[in-house]
């Protein structure tokens, strides 16, 4: 029903904008994927889930006051997904992070550059300037 979809969307959005909310949402959706089998079907399901999560993360919720505010809250958390230590979890989280980054960069290049690409490339830029 529409009311349930709206309520779930609202709860998901509220969770995303909290500290560590992105990781909690990603973990809740992709946890357990890929653990069962290494076959092509399991890999396809894993990719589809990661892509679906990335689309959710790249979409600014209605509850957020502005797209800039959303990027300020969520982008550092997306970059944190690249630093997960557990190998299986890290692979899935990296898929989500890279797909989200690409989706955000295509949709809003200036905001993605400011909140994702510059922080991501800062160490490389510091090394190249020295």
- Helical content stands at over 70%
Overall SS class: mainly alpha
The outline comes out as: globular
Poorly predicted residue ranges? none
What does this structure look like?
- With 130 residues, the chain is mainly alpha-helical.
- The protein has six helices and no strands.
- It has one domain (2-129).
- It has helices spanning 2-16, 21-30, 40-58, 67-80, 87-107, 109-129.
- The longest helix has 21 residues, at 87-107.
- The termini are far apart.
Outline of the structure:
The protein has 130 residues and is mostly helical.
Task: List descriptors.
single chain, 130 residues, mainly alpha, 6 helices, 0% strand, globular
Helix and strand arrangement:
Layout: H1 2-16, H2 21-30, H3 40-58, H4 67-80, H5 87-107, H6 109-129
Helix pairs in contact: 1-2, 2-3, 2-5, 3-5, 4-6, 5-6
């Amino acid at each position: 029903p529409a009311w349930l979809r709206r309520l779930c969307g609202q709860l998901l959005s509220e969770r995303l904008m909290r500290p560590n909310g992105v990781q909690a949402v990603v973990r809740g959706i992709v946890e357990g994927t890929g653990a069962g089998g290494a076959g092509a079907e399991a890999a396809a399901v894993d990719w589809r889930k990661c892509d679906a999560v990335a689309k959710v993360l790249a979409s600014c919720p209605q509850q957020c006051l502005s797209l800039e505010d959303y990027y300020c809250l969520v982008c550092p958390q997306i970059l944190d997904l690249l630093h997960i230590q557990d190998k299986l979890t890290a692979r899935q989280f990296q898929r989500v992070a890279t797909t989200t980054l690409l989706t955000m960069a295509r949709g809003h290049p200036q905001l993605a550059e400011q909140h994702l690409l510059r922080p991501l490339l800062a160490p490389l830029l510091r090394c190249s300037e020295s």
